[in-house]
Amino acid sequence: MSSIISKVVLITGCNGGIGKTLCREFMAAGYLVIGTDLHTKDSAKCDRYIACDLSVLASSSSTQTQFRDDVTNFVREQSAELKVIINNAAAQITGSLKALSISDFQFCQQVNVVAPFVMAKLFEVPLRQANGAFLNIGSIHSRLTKPGFSAYSTSKAALSGLTRALALEFAGDVTVNTVSPAATKTEMLLDGFRGQQEKYNELGAYHPVGRIAETEEIVRLVQFLCSENARFITGADLPIDGGIGGRLHDPI
Q: What are 108-142's pLDDT values in tens digits?
């Protein structure tokens, strides 16, 4: 009788609102969770935490080697397989064209696009061996944006393009998809509206469904796309936006 091999999911940005929910729900589904984020300690519950600055990972070969070894060693120690990678971490630097610096623009691309590409490079072999899933958390800003979001929207549009390209590179071995949420109820968003309940309510009402998303709703779609039931879905960028992506905003 063959033994059951444990499944490992690697989640970036694990300390954020969606990241914490990803860790919790994948653990509940029986995965071993490797979480990574900027901070020295994790605030999410995971089986292994690796502190890592993705802007450094994107350009430093020594950091890439260390990160790969940390992940690989954990997987080996657990007699497991790396089944899923979720690129959830993101940098959102906003500002007008005049105010936004070139370094700010480049930083967003490093964290939001180059780092996921590096993850695909570092873990191509184990993902292929596990017939795994590579999932990117995109944004409605990849298609619909507003003034001040040049760096962020460009990075998310590029991430959508990377998703399609990697789906072809991985062919049938690994599914590669993006989910693109609209406004989601995270601590960061709530802090931004603290003391402005009326504006928060207005944001929710602007969505055709009448509210913003719960993190659990985003994660349920992620889990489906990472499951064996979704093996025919690859190269897709799926909006989860409460219908706001179809709404025209004009002054009349």
A: 999 999 999 999 999 999 999 999 999 999 999 99
Q: In the chain, what percentage of residues exceed pLDDT 90? A: 89
Specify whether the CB–CB gap between 17 and 187 falls below 8 A: yes
State the greatest distance between any 2 C-alpha atoms of the chain, in Å, as a whole number: 69
Q: Is residue 1 part of a domain?
A: no
Contact 100, 52 (CB under 8 A): no
Which has the closest alpha carbon to 53: 43, 65, 67? 67
Question: For the chain, where are the E strands, in sequence order?
Answer: 6-12, 32-37, 48-51, 80-87, 133-137, 175-181, 237-240
Residue 154 has pLDDT above 80, yes or no: yes
User: In CATH, what number is assigned to the domain containing residue 40?
Assistant: 3.40.50.720
List beta partners, residue 178.
136, 237
On whether residue 154 sits in a domain, the answer given is yes
**Domain membership flag for residue 194:** yes
Model confidence pLDDT, tens digit, residues 185-212: 988 788 888 899 999 999 999 999 999 9
Is residue 146 in some structural domain?
A: yes
The token duo for 182 is 């609209």
Number of separate domains in the chain: 1
Residue 251 confidence class, pLDDT cut points 50, 70, 90: low
User: What pLDDT score was predicted for residue 3?
Assistant: 61
Closest C-alpha to 59, from 123, 119, 115: 115
CA 140 to CA 186: how far, in whole Å? 16
Q: Counting runs of H as helices and runs of E as strands, what totals does the chain give?
A: 10, 7
Domain containing residue 166: 6-239
